[in-house]
Design the sequence.
């Protein structure tokens, strides 16, 4: 279980500057190979830079029929703004990269292509390894857009401390070059726990909907 604060900053020629922040709790159950069996993400509070008003966020839950496979998975999303829960089959929420820090650090150290180790940095008082993540999903980069993803991993505990993504460029719209934009998102890990697989902890992975405190 990871509790974190996520902050997004966006700018475009059309809309100017905007921002969105949220507090988030994520719970993931993994099999022995580190593949997800269940994922639950709860946005406990979200607010925009425009009004500064906090409001309840959405809740997402995925149960995998086969660990890590989208086929057969079932996802549910509860939106407090509408009071409705939407269920989709053969659809899955993927755990955030913060849950994959151990594997990605091992990949970087071994020279595999999904992560690259670029020195160290001090983040929030933590001495961390800086990992640059590239093409994790195997897809090529979008023409005209530069992307960068960094994951900062504590050098002692090997747990994620911070995760950053940034994009900039001009997207192609209907075959034409769109307006310039930049986008930055930072996830700061506030706390993490490794929980035993018990009936009580499995209940943390169930959709709570409007009953969530």
Sequence:
């Amino acid at each position: 279980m990871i509790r974190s604060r996520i902050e997004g900053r966006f700018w475009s020629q059309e809309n100017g500057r905007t921002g969105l922040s949220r507090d988030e709790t994520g719970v993931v159950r993994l099999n022995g190979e580190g593949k997800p069996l269940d994922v639950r993400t709860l946005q406990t509070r979200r607010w925009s830079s425009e009004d500064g008003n906090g409001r309840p966020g959405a809740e997402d839950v995925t149960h995998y029929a086969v660990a890590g496979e989208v086929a057969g998975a079932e996802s549910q999303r509860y939106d407090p703004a509408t009071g409705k829960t939407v269920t989709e089959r053969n659809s899955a929420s993927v755990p955030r990269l913060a849950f994959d820090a151990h594997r990605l650090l091992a990949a970087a150290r071994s020279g595999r292509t999904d992560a690259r180790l670029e020195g160290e940095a001090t983040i929030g008082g933590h001495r961390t390894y800086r990992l640059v993540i590239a093409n994790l999903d195997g897809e090529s980069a979008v023409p005209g857009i530069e992307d960068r993803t960094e994951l900062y991993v504590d050098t002692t505990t090997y747990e994620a401390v911070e995760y950053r993504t940034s994009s900039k460029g001009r997207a192609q719209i209907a075959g034409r070059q769109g307006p310039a934009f930049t986008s930055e998102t930072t996830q700061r890990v506030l706390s993490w726990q490794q929980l035993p697989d018990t009936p009580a902890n499995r209940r943390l992975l169930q959709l709570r909907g409007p009953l969530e405190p």
In short: The CA atoms of residues 86 and 178 lie 33 Å apart. The radius of gyration is 18 Å.
